[in-house]
Amino acid sequence: MEIIQPQKKDIQKLAFIEADCFPLAEAASYSDLKARYRAFPENFLIAKEEGKIVGFINGNTTNQTILEDRFYEDASLHDPSGAYMCVFGIDVEPPYQGRGIGKALMRAYIDLAKSRKKKGIVLTCKKRLKPFYESFGFTCLGQSQSTHGGALWYDMLLAF
Ligand SMILES: CC(C)(COP(=O)(O)OP(=O)(O)OC[C@H]1O[C@@H](n2cnc3c(N)ncnc32)[C@H](O)[C@@H]1OP(=O)(O)O)[C@@H](O)C(=O)NCCC(=O)NCCS
């Protein structure tokens, strides 16, 4: 498995993976992902197995320690000089889940943020995934005000 940055032509495939991984109300569309890739291509990582894209991670950069819902829809809110990198989504194709790919993507994203001298990583997650993120050192800041996809979210912060 290799973790690399995607090319523009890969974005369509990422939209298919996103649709497989998230409910419709939460999934970023092809056009959302294209807009994000245009604004912050440097914040996308993909996992490839035998040349096939099987997962990816992406998010903007901000000075805030809370991920706001408006970030998902408005790629122009990306602030490259911000101190924190957000995770909007971490996705592994269902047949490839449970093999360490999600963990490897998260570790690579953390390394990327550290290499850019950021202060940490910010995300929101559902209750069942808190232990997954806590295993990387994330702390739960409490219930989020997010109403993204009509679900209940928790604010998570990894401070380096
Ligand atoms: C969450 C997700 C990215 C994890 O990727 P993965 O490749 O399946 O995870 P890994 O194999 O690297 O597992 C890492 C650890 O997290 C745990 N874990 C993985 N998915 C989990 C889940 N849904 N609930 C609870 N724990 C989970 C695993 O048990 C494993 O723990 P271990 O190392 O102690 O065995 C993947 O399941 C996925 O794409 N889910 C759908 C989309 C989603 O919910 N993304 C996260 C919100 S942005």
From TrEMBL:
<dbReference type="GO" id="GO:0008080">
    <property type="term" value="F:N-acetyltransferase activity"/>
</dbReference>
<dbReference type="InterPro" id="IPR000182">
    <property type="entry name" value="GNAT_dom"/>
</dbReference>
<protein>
    <submittedName>
        <fullName>N-acetyltransferase GCN5</fullName>
    </submittedName>
</protein>
<dbReference type="InterPro" id="IPR051635">
    <property type="entry name" value="SNAT-like"/>
</dbReference>
<keyword id="KW-0808">Transferase</keyword>
<dbReference type="Pfam" id="PF00583">
    <property type="entry name" value="Acetyltransf_1"/>
</dbReference>
<dbReference type="InterPro" id="IPR016181">
    <property type="entry name" value="Acyl_CoA_acyltransferase"/>
</dbReference>
<keyword id="KW-0012">Acyltransferase</keyword>
<feature type="domain" description="N-acetyltransferase">
    <location>
        <begin position="1"/>
        <end position="159"/>
    </location>
</feature>
